[in-house]
C-alpha cells in the first residue's frame, strides 16, 4: 500500500521539474532564449526566506516579512528570471523610441513579456499536476538580491506545495 502522504514531496519535485521544461520551451521574443529557471530545495528556500527578512528590515514592507514565513511551508520553489537584453525591435513598449535610447536599468518590455509567458507556462503545469503554488515578486526580489542567476533581472518565485489546503493563500 502506498500512502498518499508518503509521496507528496516527490510529486512536488516531479511537477517542479516539469515546470522547468515548460518555462524553457515557452515562446520567446524573436526566438531568443534569455530565461533562466531553477528548482530550489528546502535549504535554498530557507536562504531566500532569510534574505526576505533582510529586505523587510531594510524597507519595512510587511510583504517581505509575511512571505518569508509563508515560503517555509513549501516543499520546493520554482524561480525564474530574465536576462536584460533588448532585442532590437524598436517596439517602443518600454517607452522609448528605439532600443538604443532606452536607458540602462529600464527593462526591455519584450524581456518582461518573455518572463511572464514562462511564468504562465510553468504555473499551468503546476495546476495540471494539482500542485499548489503562488507567483511571488517578494521572494523574487530576494532571489535577485542573492544573484541566483548571474546577469539576470525580473525574478519571480513560485513556492510549491501538495497539502490539503494551499498554504500560499489566506495568509
Structure notes:
Helix 1 runs antiparallel to helix 4 and helix 2 packs antiparallel against helix 3. The chain contains five helices and four strands. A four-stranded antiparallel β-sheet has the order 1-2-4-3, sandwiched between helices. The radius of gyration is 17 Å and the shape is globular. The mean pLDDT is 95. It is of the alpha+beta class. The chain has one domain: NADH Oxidase (3-Layer(aba) Sandwich), CATH 3.40.109.10. It is 43% helix and 15% strand. The termini are far apart.
The CATH architecture is 3-Layer(aba) Sandwich
Count of strand segments: 4
Radius of gyration, rounded? 17 Å
Count structural domains: 1
Parts with pLDDT < 50 across at least 5 consecutive residues: none
Look up the CATH topology: NADH Oxidase
Fraction of residues in H or I helices: 40-55%
The gross shape turns out to be globular
Highest-level CATH class: Alpha Beta
Fourth CATH level, the homologous superfamily: NADH Oxidase
Mean pLDDT score? 95
Distance between the termini: 35 Å
Our count of helices gives: 5
Subunit arrangement of the protein: single chain
User: Beta fraction of the residues?
Assistant: 15-25%
Features:
single chain, 171 residues, globular, NADH Oxidase, alpha+beta
In short:
By secondary structure, this protein is α+β, with helices and mostly antiparallel strands. The chain is built from five helices and four strands. It has helices at 8-25, 42-59, 62-70, 109-128, 137-145; strands spanning 35-40, 76-83, 132-133, 152-161.
Chain-wise SSE layout:
Layout: H1 8-25, E1 35-40, H2 42-59, H3 62-70, E2 76-83, H4 109-128, E3 132-133, H5 137-145, E4 152-161
Antiparallel strand pairs: 1-2, 2-4, 3-4
Amino acid at each position: 500500500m502506498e500512502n498518499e502522504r508518503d509521496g507528496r514531496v516527490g510529486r512536488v519535485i516531479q511537477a517542479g521539474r516539469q515546470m522547468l521544461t515548460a518555462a524553457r520551451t515557452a515562446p520567446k521574443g524573436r526566438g531568443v532564449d534569455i530565461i533562466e529557471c531553477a528548482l530550489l530545495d528546502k535549504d535554498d528556500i530557507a536562504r531566500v526566506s532569510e534574505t526576505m527578512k533582510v529586505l523587510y528590515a531594510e524597507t519595512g514592507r510587511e510583504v517581505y516579512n509575511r512571505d518569508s514565513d509563508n515560503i517555509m511551508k513549501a516543499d520546493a520553489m520554482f524561480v525564474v528570471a530574465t536576462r536584460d537584453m533588448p532585442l532590437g525591435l524598436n517596439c517602443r513598449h518600454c517607452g522609448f523610441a528605439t532600443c538604443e535610447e532606452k536607458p540602462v536599468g529600464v527593462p526591455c518590455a519584450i524581456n518582461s513579456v518573455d518572463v511572464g509567458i514562462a511564468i504562465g507556462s510553468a504555473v499551468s503545469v503546476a495546476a495540471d499536476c494539482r500542485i499548489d503554488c503562488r507567483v511571488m515578486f517578494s521572494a523574487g526580489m530576494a532571489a535577485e538580491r542573492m544573484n541566483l542567476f548571474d546577469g539576470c533581472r525580473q525574478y519571480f518565485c513560485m513556492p510549491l506545495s501538495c497539502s490539503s489546503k494551499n498554504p500560499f493563500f489566506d495568509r
